[in-house]
From TrEMBL:
It holds the Pfam family Ribonuc_L-PSP. GO terms for cellular component: cytosol. It comes from the Bacteria. CDD domains: YjgH_like. This is RidA family protein. GO terms for molecular function: deaminase activity.
Length: 137
């Protein structure tokens, strides 16, 4: 197997190395991004729900940017929400600030009971722009 083409956001590589996973991997013209949570630079959770969701999107956007992408390049989204009956509406109200205009990516929402101290996680697949694909080769 060839080495993975890993993308690290600025200033967070140590956090990913400590937790033993890659934030994103380029493969076959796509960027596969690990689930992003509202973690502070030290990896601890942002306690307030809205701030946590915004931080998760900011962390996601940092990875997309490091790969030469934006949210406009995202084709598939999976979100994980603890206690979706209570948290879905407050979380969903934040999405328009980050989501962009139609056509929107596909979306799968999953209700979960535990996210390691977080209430929200977002995982995406993005199509790499031609310029990002060429620079990664």
């Amino acid at each position: 197997m060839s080495a993975r083409d890993v993308v690290f956001p600025t200033e967070r590589q140590a956090l990913y190395e400590r937790n033993r996973y890659s934030p994103a991997v380029r493969a076959n013209g796509f960027l596969f991004v690990s689930g992003q949570v509202g973690s502070r630079p030290d990896g601890s959770p942002e306690p307030e729900l809205e701030a946590q969701v915004r931080l998760a999107f900011n962390n996601l956007n940092a990875i997309l940017s490091a790969a030469g992408c934006t949210f406009e390049d995202v084709v598939d989204v999976t979100v994980f929400i603890v206690d979706p009956a209570r948290n879905f509406e407050p979380i969903w109200k934040i999405f328009p600030d980050y989501w962009g205009d139609a056509p929107h990516p596909t979306l799968t929402g999953v209700g979960v009971t535990w996210l390691y101290g977080y209430q929200f996680e977002i995982k995406v697949i993005a199509k790499l722009p031609a310029s990002a694909t060429l620079s990664a080769s």
